[in-house]
Amino acid sequence: MTIFFQRIMLALVAAGTLSFAPAALAADGKGSAEEASALVKKAVAFLKKNGKDKSLAEFSDGKGQFIDRDMYIFVIDLKGKMLAHGTLPKIIGKDVLEMKDPDGKFLFKDMLEVANTKGSGWVNYKWPNPISKNIEAKATYVEKVDDMILGAGIYK
Length: 156
Known about the structure:
The protein is an alpha+beta fold. It has one domain: Beta-Lactamase (2-Layer Sandwich), CATH 3.30.450.20. The protein contains five helices and seven strands; from the N terminus they run ααααββββαβββ. A hairpin with a 2-residue loop joins strand 6 and strand 7 (148-155).
């Protein structure tokens, strides 16, 4: 596990460090695959209507419309730089291309590969759940839009 990923894990596990809308914390259940892909499609439509700057700010708003229970939007560019993240503002602007999950999987490289070869699709890896604060298996739907990859995932 990389030091960067370890620091992210510690930050997520620390009590009270996440910023979510109260409704998201109180919501029952987990997001479904259909809901995650719909959230990405909603984000794509928002991006096309409102432009890059306004959209990245909205996607990074931990209390905004792109947070739904354990689902949130994140955006990376084609070089692996995090442009927006609904739950981890501290990694915005960071190069995440070499980040590995606890099993050594290069999750963002895999997302870029799927988006660049297929335009959209699913990637499986492990990531901290913002609600349970545990590292869990996750599947993320990604979609390429211009020079960005938008994603939202579900915890299994």
